[in-house]
Amino acid sequence: MRIGEIASRAGVSRDTVRFYERMGLLNEAAQPHLSNNYKEYSALALRRIELITHAKALGFTLREIADVIGAWEQEALAPGEKRVLIREKIREVENKAHSLAVLRVALSEALDKVESGCSDELPA
Amino acid sequence: MRIGEIASRAGVSRDTVRFYERMGLLNEAAQPHLSNNYKEYSALALRRIELITHAKALGFTLREIADVIGAWEQEALAPGEKRVLIREKIREVENKAHSLAVLRVALSEALDKVESGCSDELPA
DNA sequence: GTAAAGCGTGGACCATGGTCCACGGTCAAG
DNA sequence: CTTGACCGTGGACCATGGTCCACGCTTTAC
């Protein structure tokens, strides 16, 4: 799979793929194809980009994503440290779920107000 | 409540409060106190900033937040249009919930792998 | 074989979401 | 009545996450 294909499959631009690569988010998921110097992207790279897209949509920064992926690939971390790191990220995901719930309540309340004809104030 | 108090209560900087104000996110929630030209912030403004913080943490842009708030305050929108707008935002929140679920699964799988001793690949 | 489409590299540019700084006015303690 | 903490304004600056462009090479379609 070359850059054009992976980009359109992942729903991002070629430039974005190259940018993620420069940021170290794809690393060994994309190898240069020696004969013609076109890079070859694996299915892993595609899943990786989709993961990044999801994470980004939730307000995670590329730096945070890179930290998790980077820690993964370099064997510098003991399994115990990896467990700690993942659990930390899971906690963050749960915090986001909480924020999401707060927002949903605010929006639902706003909807109720509008439907009952009282449309003055946006609930917090 | 003046800017220093609202900023520290909301956990943001004074500059951030001023920035949000310039972006039209606080509008009539902060009035200039005429005597000394210090601005007076209401409890509504505080809740507003907290709402912005939550929304931002979930990847909503200030522009999106401003659109919802702005549509609210200007009485240009009929209740029907407001309903449409809110339901649209609720759909976005649900999409984010889906992304969150995807991420949670990826992280849980990663945790499983680490715990079973197979620590090579980050699942998508 | 020639043209169009695709690729890699490098660098300029851009929008978003702030942060920092300097200036001058204001308020509160001593 | 001065000193220090706070405020408003304006503008420069910054990091993040891209986007765009020009260049020259490759591959694919005709």
UniProtKB/TrEMBL annotation, chains A, B:
HTH merR-type domain span: 1-71
Lineage: Bacteria, Pseudomonadati, Pseudomonadota, Betaproteobacteria, Burkholderiales
Protein name as catalogued: MerR family transcriptional regulator
Species in which this protein is naturally found: Duganella vulcania
SUPFAM superfamilies: Putative DNA-binding domain
GO molecular function, one term: DNA binding
InterPro entries assigned: DNA-bd_dom_put_sf (IPR009061), MerR-type_HTH_dom (IPR000551), MerR_fam (IPR047057)
Residues of the signal peptide: none
Keyword field: DNA-binding, Repressor, Transcription, Transcription regulation
